[in-house]
């Protein structure tokens, strides 16, 4: 399976497992799961065909492990804009987590902190390298440090998804460390 096809299938899965399952007639269960055969059939009925082998390749090859398979079911690991309960237990974060962004968002972040926007949670990375890759999707990346230890001590809840992404409802600006301005 070539890279272009892998990306195309991955984007299709993200759209329909995270944001718009109803667009192809899918109903996810409360945890965001759907039967793989049902997903493949729904996609084909709406003009986008892929095989089980292609799906397995996308799941296995995705460096961010965006999708999880449990037996005959699949779901997105996080990033939903629809109502799902991923069933993640609260977790104690490491002292610092990281968030990749770009310069044009810094003024708003300085004022409002990090907000979930159209998702359920703010996504945080366990290391600078991952946050850099996340920020680079929108341009030249800027990596912010999040004082997750202080947030946790102050009562903010954290969860960690199956693919290692840390989730929290919001990060107030006082817990953020911005890089030096040049």
UniProtKB/TrEMBL annotation:
Signal peptide: none
EC id: 2.7.1.-
InterPro entries: Ptrans_KptA/Tpt1, RNA_2'-PTrans_C, RNA_2'-PTrans_KptA, RNA_2'-PTrans_N
MF GO annotations: transferase activity
Superkingdom of source: Bacteria
PANTHER family, per database record: PUTATIVE PHOSPHOTRANSFERASE, TRNA 2'-PHOSPHOTRANSFERASE 1
Free-text function comment from the UniProt entry: Removes the 2'-phosphate from RNA via an intermediate in which the phosphate is ADP-ribosylated by NAD followed by a presumed transesterification to release the RNA and generate ADP-ribose 1''-2''-cyclic phosphate (APPR>P). May function as an ADP-ribosylase.
Protein name: Probable RNA 2'-phosphotransferase
Organism this protein belongs to: Streptomyces cellulosae
Upper taxonomic lineage: Bacteria, Bacillati, Actinomycetota, Actinomycetes, Kitasatosporales
Gene: kptA
């Amino acid at each position: 399976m070539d890279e272009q096809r892998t990306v195309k299938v991955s984007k299709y899965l993200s759209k329909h497992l995270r944001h718009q399952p109803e667009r192809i007639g899918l109903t996810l269960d409360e945890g965001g799961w759907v039967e793989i055969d049902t997903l493949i059939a729904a996609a084909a009925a709406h003009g986008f065909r892929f095989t089980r082998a292609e799906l397995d390749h996308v799941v296995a090859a995705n460096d961010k492990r965006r999708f999880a398979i449990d037996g005959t079911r699949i779901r997105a690991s996080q990033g939903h804009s629809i109502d799902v309960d991923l069933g993640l237990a609260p977790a104690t974060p490491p002292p610092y987590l990281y968030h990749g962004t770009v310069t044009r968002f810094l003024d708003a972040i300085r004022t409002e902190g990090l907000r979930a926007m159209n998702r359920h949670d703010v996504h945080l990375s366990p290391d600078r390298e991952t946050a850099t890759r996340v920020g680079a999707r929108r341009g030249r990346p800027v990596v912010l440090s999040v004082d997750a230890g202080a947030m946790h001590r102050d009562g903010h809840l954290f969860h960690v998804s199956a693919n290692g992404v840390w989730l929290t409802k919001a990060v107030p600006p006082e817990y953020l460390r911005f890089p030096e301005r040049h």
